[in-house]
Amino acid sequence: MALSNKLLVITGGPGVGKTTLVKSILTILQAKKVQPLLCAPTGRAAKRLSESTGREAKTIHRLLEVNPQSGQFKRNEDAPLECDLLVVDESSMIDVPLASQLLRAVGSASAVIFVGDVDQLPPVGPGQFLADLIASRSVPVVQLSEVFRQAGNSRIVRAAHQINQGLVPSLPVKGEESDFYMVSAEEPETIAQTVVDLVKSRLPRRFGLDPIRDIQVLCPMNRGITGARGLNQMLQDALNPPGAASVDRFGYRFGIGDKVMQIQNNYDKDVFNGDIGFVTGLDADEQELAVTFDGHTTSYPYGELDELVLCYATTIHKSQGSEYPAVVIPLSMQHYTMLKRNLVYTGLTRGKRLMVLVGQKRALTIAVKGKQLERRWSKLEERLRQPLAPVPNESPEGEDFSPGPARPA
């Protein structure tokens, strides 16, 4: 289907072979001298796509050559992308305006493959592009469902598929080796303290993990003691207490060694929303902070520190498109308004080697069994279902009645 259609959607949960399939398609097409381009909505997702395929992948904004000042894209219908095939990963994160800009830049001779997990959270921006594209039945869709053996041995993968089916995931019995656990705790203060203990000592001691670089805490929301903001403060105090050489700006205190996240695209600095880095320098005289992201170091004048937040803990929404060696998720009735199946499912599928839920079993049950996210009202599905309007100056049979020589239909 991929080789015989101009537009294809490949969707499915974790462990069903989306990445393997894309690599196979690219290998076949490379042998046929087909020129591909690869992209994803975020820098982290693009980096993962590049690592998994061994080919360069860019963010959609960079691929479309965005102008940092105006926000306009250089690539459009008048200057289309130069490729035979465009592969777009993590398509569930793409909102309708960005999808529109991307498709405008695809030349008429190019093919497109959208890859993504439609059961994850919808995009932050308007619409639900991937879900509407699939629901419209206007394009070929490959829904992968078989979990392959290597992935099937993972409780993370099994739990993710159980949650997606509305089932409370099965937990390992006491003493069983697993990559998925739940630690019961009832009170919000107990949940928060348990998260800190797990990150600081219990998980590093048992699994040989670096508490700052390998473990990521993902929260359903920002607010509350079990939210990202409260846990960031507790985790910073436990893992990298602020010393004399630190700077207070915009509600955070940053010191050398702190784990931070960029929260907006900055094309001048070459860092993007969701990128995680570490503070590696602080110059009080120059009033600058140095942050290293994946090997390249960027300077931030103190006045620009509103682009950074602490990232010992972050929200599940912010984690989309990323993967971490180990993930800890606090689940509390404090998060009641956010306890949705697709939220827990998205958080669960961020963990590569280890996933630990901390909190109330009741909160997990409500998330898995409860009503799904409020419906997003979008006209895209309806519009895609509508038949195309006839091309002007052509009869229904395709004969051209316009002046000049006849052209093929």
Q: Explain this structure to me?
A:
By secondary structure, this protein is an alpha/beta fold. About 30% of the residues lie in helices and about 25% in strands. The chain contains 13 helices and 18 strands. The strands form 4 sheets. The chain has a 6-stranded parallel β-sheet with strand order 3-2-4-5-1-6, with helices on both faces. A 5-stranded parallel β-sheet has the order 7-18-17-8-16. β17, α11 and β18 (about 350-360) form a beta-alpha-beta unit. α7 runs antiparallel to α11 (about 340-350). The two termini are about 25 Å apart. Mean pLDDT is about 90; it is low at about 395-409.
Question: For the residues shown, what is the average pLDDT?
Answer: 88
Q: What is the global morphology?
A: globular
Sequence of strands across the biggest β-sheet: 3-2-4-5-1-6
**Strand tally:** 18
Uncertain runs are: 394-409
Q: Largest beta sheet, briefly?
A: 6 strands, parallel
Q: What is the SS-derived class?
A: alpha/beta
* Through-space gap between termini: 25 Å
Tally of DSSP helical segments = 13
Report the portion of residues in β strands: 15-25%
Rg from alpha-carbon coordinates: 23 Å
The share of residues in helices is 25-40%
Gist?
The protein is α/β, with parallel strands linked by helices and 409 residues long. The chain contains 13 helices and 18 strands. The relative contact order is 0.13.
What is the strand and helix layout of this fold?
Elements: E1 7-12, H1 18-31, E2 36-40, H2 43-53, E3 57-59, H3 60-63, E4 85-88, H4 96-104, E5 111-116, H5 129-135, E6 141-144, H6 149-152, H7 155-164, E7 180-184, H8 188-207, E8 215-219, H9 228-239, E9 246-249, E10 252-255, E11 259-262, E12 276-283, E13 288-293, E14 296-301, E15 308-310, E16 313-315, H10 316-319, E17 324-331, H11 341-348, E18 351-359, H12 361-369, H13 380-385
